[in-house]
Automatic annotation (TrEMBL):
Pfam families: Porphobil_deam, Porphobil_deamC. This is Porphobilinogen deaminase. Binds 1 dipyrromethane group covalently. The modification S-(dipyrrolylmethanemethyl)cysteine is found at C229. NCBIfam families: hemC (TIGR00212). It comes from Conexibacter woesei (strain DSM 14684 / CCUG 47730 / CIP 108061 / JCM 11494 / NBRC 100937 / ID131577). The porphobilinogen subunits are added to the dipyrromethane group. It comes from the Bacteria. Its cofactor is dipyrromethane. Residues 4-199 form the Porphobilinogen deaminase N-terminal domain. Its EC number is 2.5.1.61. GO terms for molecular function: hydroxymethylbilane synthase activity. Residues 213-284 form the Porphobilinogen deaminase C-terminal domain.
C-alpha cells in the first residue's frame, strides 16, 4: 500500500500534533509521511481570519500533495468548503485553559494585567474579574512565555493541551476550570478530500467516538449561533458517566461587562449535532444574538486585543 501523506503547518505545536497522528496511524499498520506546509499565516501575513491556516492545507489536499491534513480543531471554521470532510478526531487532550505566571486567578492583585490575544479569554477573565487588565500578547507558545518572563503581563492564558504537547506543562500555574474552553480546544481535526476513501478510512480508524461526538456538538453550537473566529464564544462538551453529553457554553462582550453562561445535558443516545443545535437555540433564546452583535460592534469600533480569538500562528 502506498504511503499516506500527512499535511501539517510547520510550527512546533503543529509538528508535534502531526507526529502524534502519524504514530497513531503507524500503530494501525499504515505507512505514513509527515509533510510540513508553510502557510501564509506562518509567514506572518496579516489576515484577520484563522481559517487562513486551514485553507492552505486544503490547497495542499486539493493539489494532491497530502492526503490527510491535521489541524487544531479549534482553528477549523464551522463550515468546510465543498469537497472536504472532517474525517477523523483522535482522542482529545485536556481541553482547558491554563494560567501561567500566577498560582490562581484569585491570587492576581487588583488591576493586574493578563496577556491574551483571545477575545473569548478576555471576555471570560473580565466576566470573573472586572478589575483585570488585558493586553494582547502574540506569538507562539514559547514567545508568549518569554513575554511573560519579560514582565509584559502579570500572567498569561494558554491552552493546557498546547503547553503539554510542547513539554511546557511546568509553566502551568493553575488550570482554569472556571473558563469555558474554545470550541474544539484540545482536539485534533483530520481533514481529507471527500472523495478519498482510503484517507477517510485511515482517519476514521484512529477516531475516538467521544472526542468526535463532543466536537460535533460544539461545532453545531457554533454554526447555530453563526459564530466566527471573531466571536467571544466558549463551548465545551463532555461525555457523562451515563453515556450522555453535557455542554457548557459562554458568550460575552470582550470587556466582560455582559455575558451568558449555560450548561445543558442530554441522555445517552442523543445525536451530538442535534444536541449542539439545541444548546445554541437555548443561548439565542437567552439573548446571545444581541450579545454577539454588540461584541462584533465593539470589535469594529476599537480593535480587539488581537485579530482572532485564539490568536496567532503557533
Ligand atoms: N490558535 C492557537 C492555538 N490553537 C491550538 C492551540 C492549543 C492546542 C489546542 O487547543 O488544541 C493554540 C494555542 C493556545 O490557545 O494556547
Amino acid at each position: 500500500m502506498s504511503v499516506l501523506r500527512i499535511g501539517t503547518r510547520a510550527s512546533a505545536l503543529a509538528l508535534v500534533q502531526a507526529e502524534h497522528v502519524a504514530s497513531l496511524l503507524r500503530d494501525g499498520g499504515a505507512q505514513v509521511e509527515v509533510i510540513p506546509i508553510t502557510t501564509s499565516g506562518d509567514r506572518g501575513r496579516l489576515l484577520g481570519d484563522k481559517s487562513r491556516w486551514v485553507k492552505e492545507l486544503e490547497a495542499a489536499l486539493l493539489a494532491d500533495e497530502v492526503d490527510v491534513a491535521v489541524h487544531s480543531a479549534k482553528d477549523v471554521p464551522a463550515e468546510l468548503p465543498d469537497g472536504f470532510v472532517l474525517a477523523g478526531v483522535p482522542a482529545r487532550a485536556d481541553a482547558r485553559d491554563a494560567l501561567c505566571g500566577a498560582a490562581s486567578l484569585e491570587q492576581l492583585p487588583d488591576g493586574a494585567v493578563v496577556g491574551t490575544s483571545s477575545l473569548r479569554r478576555a471576555a471570560e477573565l473580565r466576566a470573573l474579574r472586572p478589575d483585570l487588565g488585558v493586553v494582547a500578547l502574540r506569538g507562539n507558545v514559547d514567545t508568549r512565555l518569554r513575554k511573560l518572563a519579560d514582565g509584559q503581563a502579570a500572567a498569561i492564558v494558554l491552552a493546557v493541551a498546547g503547553l503539554e504537547r510542547l513539554d511546557r506543562g511546568a509553566a502551568i500555574g493553575a488550570v482554569l476550570d472556571q473558563l469555558v474552553p474554545a470550541p474544539g480546544q484540545g482536539a485534533l481535526a483530520l481533514e481529507t478530500r471527500a472523495d478519498d476513501d482510503r484517507a477517510r478510512a485511515a482517519a476514521a480508524a484512529i477516531t475516538d467516538a467521544d472526542a468526535a461526538a463532543c466536537l460535533a456538538a460544539e461545532r453545531a453550537l457554533v454554526r447555530r449561533l453563526g459564530a466566527t473566529c471573531h466571536t467571544p464564544l466558549g463551548a465545551h462538551a463532555v461525555r457523562t458517566a451515563d453515556g450522555g453529553l453535557r455542554l457548557r457554553s459562554f458568550v460575552g462582550l470582550p470587556d466582560g461587562s455582559a455575558w451568558l453562561r449555560d450548561e445543558l445535558s442530554a441522555a445517552a443516545g442523543i445525536d451530538p449535532e442535534t444536541f449542539g443545535v439545541a444548546a445554541g437555540t437555548r443561548l439565542l433564546a437567552a439573548g446571545a444574538a444581541e450579545l454577539l452583535a454588540r461584541a462584533e460592534q465593539a470589535g469594529a469600533g476599537s480593535p480587539p486585543p488581537a485579530s482572532t480569538p485564539e490568536g496567532v500562528p503557533l
